[in-house]
Amino acid sequence: xxxxxxxxxxxxxxxxxxxxxxxxxxxxxxxxxxxxxxxxxxxxxxxxxxxxxxxxxxxxxxxxxxxxxxxxxxxxxxxxxxxxxxx
Length: 87
Fold this sequence. Notes:
Layout: E1 2-8, H1 13-28, E2 32-38, H2 43-48, E3 56-61, E4 64-70, H3 75-86
C-alpha cells in the first residue's frame, strides 16, 4: 500500500501553496492513500516522522518511508515520485 503523508500548519504560507497541488495529485491516483497532518494538532505524528520544519511530504510503501520532500516542491516532483513507487 502506498501512502502519501503531508505535514503542514494553517499559519504556514508554503503549506497553503502546497494544498491545491496535493489536491490535484490526489485526483490522479485512486490506488494511493493520502493523509494530512497539522503539526499543531498532531504533534505525536510530527515527532514520529522527525518533522522540524514544514511543509513535509512523506511517501511510504508498505509502511517504509521511500521518499521525503522538505519544503515546497513542484507538482511534477511529487507525481514522479509516486509513479516510481507504484512500479
